[in-house]
Amino acid sequence: MKIKQTLLALLFLPFTVFADDSEVYLDVTGDDADIMIEQQDTDNIIDLGFNNTDDLTLKIYQFGGENTVEMKGVNSYINNADNLNMLITQFQNANNILENKIIFDELTGNNNYLKLGQGVHLDDSDDLTFATDNWEGGGHYIEIDLYGNNNNIAGYQKNNGNGAHTMNLHLAGSNNDVWWYQKQDGGKTLNLTIYNSDNDVNITQRGNHDQHTATVTLDGTYGTNFELHQKATSGAAFNYTISQNCVTIGGCSISVTQD
Question: What is the pTM of this model?
Answer without folding.
Answer: 0.87
